[in-house]
Amino acid sequence: MKGFRNYSVIDYPIKQKELFEFLITDYGFKLTEELDADFSYISEYKKKGIRIHLDYDHKDNFFYFKLIRGDDTKFPNDQDTENIKTFLELFQKYVPNLDVYKLLPDDKQYLKSLERNAILLRKYGDKVLRGEEWF
User: Fold this and answer.
1) How far apart are CA 13 and CA 102, in angstroms?
2) What pTM, to 2 d.p., does this model score?
3) CA of 58: how far to CAs of 6, 33, 104, 134, in Å?
4) In the chain, at which residue ranges do the beta strands (DSSP E only) sit?
5) How far apart are alpha carbons 73 and 9 in whole angstroms?
6) Angle at CA of residue 63, ends 72 and 129, nearest 5°
């Protein structure tokens, strides 16, 4: 990947696709966008009415993972807090005292954090991913 300063994260796109494959196989999403930019790697999964936006900013070493309701919802849009939610907002609905730092990457465990996000999305996001409810 271009722009990666830490060669231990070069395999991020492969791992991200593996860990979030359940969006395609279990929920019918399609991977509609991949962007390998200088400072981030962005993927977006989409199905009717729902988008899953995964942005790993490797410059800041931060996951910007969002759930977006609506095919035409403008993103990015910090003003639309009704239709654009973070993974953390979903997870804290079920685990109010969730340690946010376990969801964020660091140089030693970014893959573990990526895996935690995928596991928690699968566990707590079922009805949202099926389009049966929003939060």
Assistant:
1) 20
2) 0.88
3) 8, 18, 12, 30
4) 30-36, 40-47, 50-57, 62-69, 84-86
5) 31
6) 45
Model confidence pLDDT, tens digit, residues 56-91:
988 888 999 999 999 889 998 989 999 999 999 999
Q: At what angle do helices 110-124 and 87-94 cross, to 10 degrees?
A: 60
CA–CA separation, 117 and 110 (whole Å)? 11
Q: What does the alpha-carbon distance between residue 52 and residue 55 come to, in Å, rounded to a whole number?
A: 10
Tens of pLDDT, residues 33-47: 888 877 889 999 999
DSSP string, 45-83: EEETTEEEEEEEETTTTEEEEEEEESTT--SS-TT-TTT
Neighbouring CB atoms inside 10 A of 93's CB total: 14
Q: Give the relative orientation of helices 12-19 and 110-124 as an angle to the nearest 10 degrees.
A: 20
